[in-house]
Design a protein that fits this description.
With 341 residues, the protein is α/β, with parallel strands linked by helices. It contains 14 helices and twelve strands. Helix 1 crosses helix 14.
């Protein structure tokens, strides 16, 4: 089949990574899958013209609002993959809610990453419950063998002669829902007392206005550093060199950065929100915090207890292997697409 896959394709963001993986799954069984950036289109008529010009036979969209609204009234069958902010945030806006309900009605199927995400959607649109399927994200990490750690530290502005350097990594696109500034004050205060502690925030400038706010705050925060996105295999290599990966989002669908850290044997400390709690069991596969003070407390306890760190890393790796298999994800999407024939 000739398939259109619509997603928000900003480099090194979760949606772009997921879209690339799904494209790979579908092309592995012979489909021709064309990836298009939802931000490049204004309305459904532009997508209708694209469908007609490129003779697409079916479509998939990631994000019920951003991608899904463009497929409204489509002349070809389509499926939807929930993104996270659609079900957690956009659902609160009356007009977006109306549009998403209409899209879900037209879709042949919808995919939720977690049971919680399915339940939230089904509570809003009960008629769609039977067409919402749960499929977790599949994870595969590929750390670069040629990654230059010294250059990474240099680019972040971290002194390389620091004894016992302890680096925390927060991976996210710079937008408000990811709340990268949530831990900055607490981290700076900790760094003043223990100068070997550093936080690096790394990711693309998704929201330019908010990015300047982040820049301004980080520039005044000792021990906190900001880096632009780097290729994924370099990012995976950087993760392996860090003490822990941090997530401070206000809401999440399913954070690939968390799952990748788990796969790379690196502990995760994540804000206690439904999307994170769906994949992290506290003190088992990671640590969940409810405020910046608890984050610092839990980080210190992890640093002072190597056996806890070993246990978390081991359990997390086993969890990813069992529940986030790339092969299972591949088979699932290949089956989903059969519903569009």
């Amino acid at each position: 089949m000739r398939l259109l896959l619509l997603a928000c394709l900003r480099a090194q963001t979760g949606n772009a990574t997921t879209a690339g993986r799904i494209q790979d799954h579908l092309e592995a069984v012979g489909h021709k899958c064309s990836l298009k950036d939802a931000f490049g289109y204004e309305n459904p008529s532009e997508i209708a013209n694209l469908i007609s010009a490129e003779k697409f036979e079916a479509a998939l969209a990631i994000h019920l609002y951003k991608g899904g609204r463009l497929l409204q009234g489509s002349r070809i069958p389509f499926g939807i993959i929930f993104g996270g902010t659609d079900i957690n945030e956009d659902i609160k806006h009356e007009e977006k809610h109306r549009v998403m309900g209409a899209v879900l009605e037209e879709a042949r199927f919808a995919v939720a990453f977690t049971k919680k995400m399915k339940e939230l959607a089904a509570a809003e649109w009960p008629g769609a419950r039977s067409k919402i399927y749960i499929q977790t994200q599949g994870i595969m990490t590929t750390p670069s063998a040629s990654f230059n750690w010294k250059r990474f530290l240099q680019n972040a502005g971290i002194p390389q002669d620091t004894d016992n350097l302890c680096l925390f990594l927060l991976i996210c696109g710079l937008r408000r829902v990811k709340d990268p500034l949530y831990l900055v004050d607490a981290f700076s205060e900790w760094h003043r007392r223990e100068p070997h502690i550093h936080l690096v925030i790394i990711g693309p400038a998704v929201d330019p206005l908010f990015t300047s706010e982040v820049n301004e705050k980080v520039n005044r925060a000792p021990g906190v550093h900001l880096l632009q996105e780097i290729p994924q295999n370099d990012l995976h290599a950087a993760v392996k060199r860090c003490f822990a990966v941090v997530n401070s989002s206000i809401s999440e669908g399913m954070s690939a950065a968390i799952l990748e850290a788990m796969d790379l044997d690196v502990p995760v400390l994540a804000r206690n929100i439904p999307g994170n709690a769906a994949i992290i069991k506290h003190k088992d596969t990671g640590l969940l915090f409810t405020d910046p003070q608890e984050f610092v407390h839990l980080s210190k306890s992890l640093m002072n207890d190597p056996s806890l760190e070993r246990e978390i890393v081991t359990q997390a790796k086993a969890y990813v292997k069992k529940h986030h298999s790339r092969e299972c994800e591949r088979e699932a999407y290949q089956n989903f697409v059969l519903r569009l024939q």
